[in-house]
Write a structure and sequence with these properties.
275 residues, mainly beta, Jelly Rolls, five-stranded antiparallel β-sheet, 1 helix, 37% strand
């Protein structure tokens, strides 16, 4: 935890609305007008589309965002397999199903220097990530920030539920703060790193392999029941332009892959979209 991180979390600005069409630019003039991918994007940036659904989806359900970044995502070193550690992905084939009663014992306290990704433990799940059905439940317990490490999940979107300790999420779209009593949603494929706002952090993660989350229908409970769309917030654009070694870990088809970048991939200067 650092005082600067706490101050940053307390002063963050947001865009409001669940699934809304938003736009944000960290540098004025970074967003192109009237088109998404001009031959030459403003400020020499690279235009990329991040798709959340098939492009054939009806407009009301179509989800995608355009990102304008300093370096193209395709310019990356080769990824190699990494140890999965305590992370598992459905379908679970590590052991045969057991009909005996079971219970979870408390997890051991993490060793010093354990960040959010290293402290991620899979509790259970169902379905098949490669078929985009089902989900998994994980527990995280960390006592260190991800300083030179970035993670992305190609298998599903991540719903973080802090139980103890606040988090500052550095994402490609900008910064998000999440504390106990709040949830944070990271879309499928979005790269991010987790900075702790307290000495340690603990909580749960729902990894959704299937269709993106949406707000429930209202029906007979009235027009204002359940979750309100305006209570959800999206980050404003913020970027890192650094040329220092960064480990990028990608979860793909149930396995972890790692590559060593020579720059931060969180270099999106502007974006617009609804994913």
């Amino acid at each position: 935890m650092s005082g600067d991180a706490r101050k940053t979390a307390e002063t963050l600005g947001y865009l409001t609305g669940f699934g809304n069409e938003h736009e944000s630019e960290a540098v004025p003039g970074a967003l192109p007008r009237g088109r998404n991918a001009p031959q030459r994007a403003p400020l020499g940036l690279y235009a990329e589309q991040l798709s959340g659904t098939a492009f054939t989806e009806p407009r009301a359900h179509n989800r995608r965002s355009w990102l304008y970044r300093i370096r193209p995502s395709a310019a990356h070193p080769e990824f190699t397999r990494a140890e999965n550690g305590t992370v598992r992905t459905a379908p679970f084939t590590d052991a045969a199903p057991d009909p005996n009663r079971r219970r979870w014992n408390p997890l051991p306290d993490p060793a010093p220097g354990t960040d959010w990704l290293t402290g991620l433990w899979t509790l259970g799940g169902n379905g098949d990530a490669t078929q985009r059905t089902g989900m998994a439940v994980h527990l995280y317990h960390a006592n260190a920030s991800m300083t030179d490490r970035v993670f992305s999940d190609a298998d599903g979107e991540l719903l973080l539920v802090p139980e103890r300790g606040g988090l500052l999420l550095h994402t490609e779209f900008g910064l998000l703060a999440a504390a106990p009593g709040e949830v944070a949603l990271i879309p499928r494929g979005v790269r991010f790193r987790v900075e702790l706002l307290d000495e340690s952090a603990r909580g749960y993660v729902c990894e959704n392999y299937g269709a993106p989350f949406r707000l429930p229908d209202l029906g007979p409970i009235g027009a204002n029941g359940l979750a309100n769309a305006r209570d959800f917030r999206a980050p404003v654009a913020a970027y890192e332009d650094t040329e220092e070694p960064v480990e990028v870990v990608n979860k793909f088809c149930g396995n972890l892959w790692t590559a060593r970048y020579d720059h931060s991939p969180l270099d999106v200067v502007a974006w617009h979209g609804n994913h």
